[in-house]
Each structure stands twice: as C-alpha cells, then as structure tokens.
C-alpha cells in the first residue's frame, strides 16, 4: 500500500500523484486534506506514520510546501525513514542506501513531471542491503 498525506500547501501535487497512481494501477490511500484550509503538518505526518506502523511493508508520500517540515515530523518515529527528495537520483539513493519508506516532497520546489519521476524511482528502486543493513538498523535504534 502507498499512503499519501499532505497539508494545505500540497493539495495540487498530491492530486497529480493520485492520478498517476490511478493511471498505473498502484494501490494507494489518501490520508491528506483536499482543500487549502490551514492544517498543521505534524498532525498530517502523524496520521501517515501511524498507518505505516500497522502495515510494515507499506510506503508513504508526504507533501507540504517545502517537504522539510514533513520530513522532520516523520523522522520522529523509529519505524520511519523519511527522505526529502528534490530529484530522482536522491530518491534512488534513499531507497538503495537508506531503505527509505517515506518520501517527502515540496510542492513549491518541484514541478509535476519531476515529482512523478521521483515517485517512480522511489517505488521501483530496491534496498541494496549488504553494507547498508547495519547502518539502517542504527537509524531505527535496533543496534
């Protein structure tokens, strides 16, 4: 399952990415807001992180204006490895080296085409394991 959540500054980009999921038959769930009414991003991130704790193999995408607040909020949780990505290469590395399970995006910083490319690389890049296993375990407090 791919969970989406966004604040008021991420509505338009979320809608683009939801359409991408529909077009590509990607199972997803929208936990975010659908209007520009103000909402606090830590509360939005909390909803998504709690859902991922229930479905360990799931991934999430958090969207706000810059992606920074969402990434800070999400990384408070031990089971979350959230990566703010501005291009597909960052997304690839976040998956290969860090086993990121949450992608954070900033609607004000990237266009729709780049966002789709970032999401594709996030969804279709596997964790390399090997030398990264111990490092990722340390991120989760398992060592």
Automatic annotation (TrEMBL):
The active site is at 64 (proton acceptor), 97 (proton donor). InterPro entries: RpiB, RpiB_LacA_LacB, RpiB_LacA_LacB_sf. Keywords: Isomerase. D-ribulose 5-phosphate binds at residues 7-8, 65-69, 98, 108, 131, 135. Signal peptide: none annotated. SUPFAM superfamilies: Ribose/Galactose isomerase RpiB/AlsB (SSF89623). It is an enzyme of class 5 (isomerase). GO terms for molecular function: ribose-5-phosphate isomerase activity. The keyword Isomerase applies. The keyword Nucleus does not apply. Gene3D superfamilies: Sugar-phosphate isomerase, RpiB/LacA/LacB. Its EC number is 5.3.1.6. GO terms for biological process: D-allose catabolic process; pentose-phosphate shunt, non-oxidative branch. PANTHER family: DNA DAMAGE-REPAIR_TOLERATION PROTEIN DRT102 (PTHR30345:SF0), RIBOSE-5-PHOSPHATE ISOMERASE B (PTHR30345). Belongs to the LacAB/RpiB family. This is Ribose-5-phosphate isomerase B. It comes from Helicobacter muridarum.
